Amino acid sequence: MSERGIGRRQLLGVGGALGLVAFTGLTTAGALARRPPRTGDVLHSKVPLPPPFQVPLPVPPVLKPVGTAGGVDRYAITQRETSAELLPGVRTPLWTYEGSFPGPTIESRRGRPITVSHRNELPVPTVVHLHGGRTPASSDGYPTDLVLPQGWEEPRPMMGGMHGGMGKMRDPRAVVTRQTRDYTFPLDQRATLLWYHDHRMDFTAPAIWRGLAGMHIVRDDAEDALGLPSGRRELPLMIADRAFAADGSLHYPSLDRHLRDKPGVEEPYLAGVLGDVILVNGAPWPMHEVDAARYRLRVLNASNARHYDLEAVLDDGRRLDLVQIGADQGLLAAPVRHRNLPLAPAERYDLVLDFAKVPIGGRVRIVNRLGSGRTRDVMAFHVVRKAADGSRVPRVLARDLPSWRRADAARVREFSFRAGRMDGGHGWLIDGRAFDPSRTDVTTRLGDVEVWRLVADVHHPVHLHMVGFRVLSRGGRDPLPHDAGLKDTISLRPGEAAEIITRFGGYKGRYLFHCHNAEHEDMGMMANLEVT
To answer: What is this structure's pTM?
Structure first.
């Protein structure tokens, strides 16, 4: 396995223009004023779509380790092309982890390290990021730390406008391997739901869209002792919107359908790509049979740009409470009850839904209050039997949440997330600058506590790598109820300023913070964070 730095000519072949994109013919005001509540445009499928609540909910398989020697669990995943029946009777080509979408779920124990060996048999380079992982920089999935497929040849650099003025950009720190790479995760972190996905420079959005996403659950003894719903009454739920072309393939408006050279999407979708089919664990609007008992729902929004506002509704119009017990980075101090719950791209919520008072034969629909037509439905539960339920939701869930205070902060920083001019066109920028892997944007010291003030023009789900944070305020006021707990992604609403506080513990090295609207991310809205 060879390792080396990566230069400009190589980057043009594997990552396009290092975050640049040609926003030809688009005015910023026009793009953002059209539909600011949803920040994106909808792709419409060209195949007949099934009625809702007919397809059973799949549960992704749990990956078994290939070895457990020396206190380290070793896993092996092959990234490969396949086809699967997502819509009934329709075969859809996919890029997958281990042949399935979502990829197999990895279950691990807090403090027990794992190594995941990824083999790239896809036609393009890849990068794997464990989202929410407290991970050494060498395994964090930096966008230029590529795994090249066998036979990948360095193509000629592209010519013309979208690269103008950027020809000297390079990333001398990139570590590139051919075909395989071992990612090591110490998992010295709170029990929670993480997820892994492709993070390749400039092509994260279409790679995730094609299927490169999977879930990773970290468990520990303290959580196991709480008596929360478990076993078949614990369901990981990856929600992701997609659109289908006439031949059954996943429709995505890439400028380069081979995802080799030219990054970016067609003009109507520059603010984000939204599909018209809601998939849960890869199934369209699925139905799941349940007991009249409590269920634990580990919910992930793996959509590129779609926001959700979830509620649980019976057919007679009554609503069930969504009892939040955890956030991105693990259990809350105490449960929080919601009637509806907003969910931005990359956010995770740990919920308990109690079906005990639903009549046998009753149906509970999970709906998206931000959707319309077919995208208002997400999935449904059919209550089919009475059953004993020994689970509970304790009043106290966790006592290990950090107690950082403003007075602890070594410094306060402010960042703006806005559309702006970039290389003769328009882009998505942090503090007016597009991402450049050769530039250090922020330097902090290991162990320092900092307060960050984040300001948005439209919806921007902002994600910090390596650390969790607490939300201090929104718009100068208290955090919202769904901001409870420790998070790694905060959903900034249009025109909003929010404050977060974190401690940069963990590891030294180069990390990222970025918008997790995947189209914004690919088009420049990332920045480098150096922990020294």
So the answer is: 0.92
